[in-house]
Design a protein that fits this description.
With 624 residues, the chain is mostly helical. Helices cover 58% and strands 6% of the residues.
Length: 624
């Protein structure tokens, strides 16, 4: 269908162009140049008629036979357009030659007609440009059948402030990744794996940015547990396909055909989505491309995908890209070495992937990278503090080289330690010297884990100089507020969170005020508050910390509390004609967004979407 429409539009354009030439020809006197001009126009007319004849022949076939043949194939339309342009160029040359045999008076009149011809041809080209713009818009509309996950791409607004690798860090690793991506003999998947906090996502963003800068990035998807659809695979392949068609526009007609054939493709099994939206379109493009297409797809934190079966399916399907020829596809993938991921790779051919284990990188290299990062961050902290406090400025040699090395040794191999400590010490409301001293105290605690040393300085600081009753009250509020944030199915702003939990917003603001080193807390109360790293959630919910840490959060109990609140909210707010419409049957798309948000605010929408999830996780039976 797409080729048919393109062919018809091409014919219409060429016929209008031919008409303009014939009108110019009629006014010319008989000369050899005019005869040559007429011959070129006759050839152009013949090509147009031959092109139409093919469609007429197919149309006259039986409906069954017609189903096996297209009116025009895409390459036929392209060849027709090219051939017409060649003949039209020759016609214009012959038209110019006609001037040479004319008298002065005839030449003046011919020039006027020629100017008219050029205006007509220019208008036709402008109309064609407009048509191209319409086609681009139509493509966007057609591909609306590819639902994408907001925030999943590496350069999404939600993750705009997330870090890239420091220029002096990960140098050898990034070079290794680039060499792998460029090597035509390399394995199609490179799996970068490592424990929580080793910097996998930062590396992924850096890799994606690097390939985007060189035009090699085909697509990216950053999984993130607790971020709605970023935590599952329901729209993984449609999101990848939607990005690929923007990178490789030649895929558009083939993806459009898949959507036209099955408008519900986005809801089909992952295998069907992958084959029809990605593998087959890329195969078709590979057959017509004159140069080898080199693309890299970046997938981060696959282990945060909810269903284990989906993880294995994704890995199996991605491994099939090695069969694409002559297209050069490489998949850069990161995850923790969790069992579902390991099983997925174990079932894959050894020829399909290679592994890089972050914690196997020499300790001295990791320590050196972390030291470079810390030196840069502490310089920023020192400069910012000195700007704010010129009378009590920090010396230029603060902190000492020994302090930097001690912190680096405490961190290895966790980059998240260095990042969290930097944010904690850099909080302008506190003394950097005092906070650095607080962090260094944990060096002597041999029983503390790496994550303990990362997060306990932040949390223990909350209890400093409080009486026992004050500490108990703070811990209770911490569990209610922060404990709820870490188990949210998708992030909420503080205003919606306050209504969902039935807790005063002032209380929530007070509890979050000192946690900017572990949470992303926007100043706008309607913007979502997010975890800076999943390891903070795991630290708080760790069952081994029950009875040992005052900040331990009972995950099941939190789910139960939120489940009950979801039911309360829905009972209070839901009802018939909830948006108070004059005509209750009005389509959702025709209702003003502000009206919906007024009567169905974020907390109520959240309760409607996730109340079942919380009852399941709380293992709590439903009562009347």
């Amino acid at each position: 269908m797409a080729a048919l429409l393109t062919g018809l539009k091409t014919i219409l354009y060429m016929m209008n162009r031919l008409k303009a030439y014939w009108e110019y020809l009629r006014e010319l006197p008989e000369t050899q140049s005019r005869t040559n001009f007429e011959t070129a126009l006759t050839e152009l007319h013949a090509i147009i008629l031959q092109f139409l004849a093919r469609a007429i022949q197919i149309y006259q076939k039986s409906s069954l036979s017609r189903g096996f043949d297209a009116f025009w194939k895409p390459d036929e339309v392209s060849n027709f357009d090219s051939e017409c342009d060649k003949i039209a160029a020759r016609a214009e040359t012959e038209a110019s030659n006609c001037d040479r045999t004319l008298s002065a008076v005839e030449r003046k009149e011919a020039n006027q007609r020629k100017e008219h011809l050029q205006r007509v041809l220019k208008e036709l080209e402008e109309l064609r440009d407009i048509e191209e713009s319409v086609n681009i818009l139509a493509t966007k509309i057609d591909l609306a059948g590819l639902p994408s996950v907001d925030g999943a791409a590496f350069d999404s607004y939600d993750d705009e402030l997330d870090a890239r690798c420091h220029p002096d860090t990960r140098i050898d690793l990034l070079r290794q990744i680039k060499d792998w991506a460029d090597d035509p003999q390399s394995k199609c998947i490179l799996w970068l794996n490592g424990m929580a906090g080793t910097g996998k996502s930062t590396i992924s963003r850096t890799v994606a940015q690097s390939f985007a800068n060189t035009g090699q990035l085909g697509a990216s998807f950053f999984f993130k547990r607790g971020e709605g659809e970023r935590g599952n695979a329901s729209r993984f392949f449609t999101t990848i396909a939607a990005q690929l068609v923007r990178t490789v526009p030649a895929m558009v007609p083939y993806v459009r055909k898949a959507i036209d054939t099955d408008p519900g493709i986005s809801g089909r099994r992952m295998k069907e989505q992958f084959e029809n939206l990605i593998f087959q379109p890329l195969s078709e493009v590979g057959q017509i491309s004159v140069t080898m297409l080199k693309l890299v797809i970046v997938i981060d934190a696959l282990d945060e995908c909810e269903r284990e079966g989906d993880i294995r399916n994704i890995l199996y399907l991605l491994s099939q890209t090695r069969q694409l020829q002559p297209i050069h596809i490489r998949i850069f993938l990161t995850s923790r070495p969790e069992l579902p991921v390991r099983l997925g790779f174990k079932k894959m051919s050894a020829h399909a992937h290679q592994d890089v284990i972050l914690q196997d990188i020499p300790k001295v290299t990791i320590a050196g990278d972390i030291s470079s990062f810390l030196k840069t961050e502490f310089k920023k902290i020192r400069d910012n503090y000195n700007d704010l406090h010129p009378d009590s400025s920090l010396p230029q040699d603060w902190p000492s080289e020994q302090c930097i090395q001690t912190l680096a040794e405490m961190a290895v191999p966790l980059f998240i330690f260095a990042a969290t400590v930097s944010r904690f010490i850099g909080d302008h409301r506190w003394s950097p010297k005092r906070r650095l001293a607080d962090v260094l105290k944990y060096q002597m605690n041999g029983q503390a884990s790496k994550l303990d040393k990362t997060y306990l300085p932040v949390l223990d600081h909350l209890l400093a100089n409080l009486s026992d009753p004050e500490q108990e009250n703070l811990v209770r509020e911490f569990r209610a507020v922060v404990g709820s944030i870490v188990v949210l199915a998708e992030p909420l702003g503080t205003s919606a969170l306050a209504r969902l939990l039935n807790i005063a917003k002032e209380t929530i603001d007070c509890r979050l005020d000192s946690l900017h080193s572990v949470l992303n807390i926007p100043s706008n109360p309607d913007s979502p508050t997010r975890l800076l790293h999943l390891s903070f959630r795991e630290f708080l919910l760790d069952p081994y910390k029950r009875g040992k840490s005052p900040f331990w959060v009972d995950e099941r109990e939190r789910h139960g509390v939120i489940a009950a609140r979801c039911l309360e909210l829905m009972s209070e707010r839901l009802g018939e004609n909830i948006c108070h419409l004059e005509f209750p049957g009005k389509p959702r798309g025709n209702i003003d967004r502000r009206r919906v948000e007024k009567y169905l605010p974020a907390d109520v929408r959240y309760a409607c979407r996730y109340w079942v999830h919380y009852f399941v996780e709380a293992k709590r039976p439903l009562g009347d």
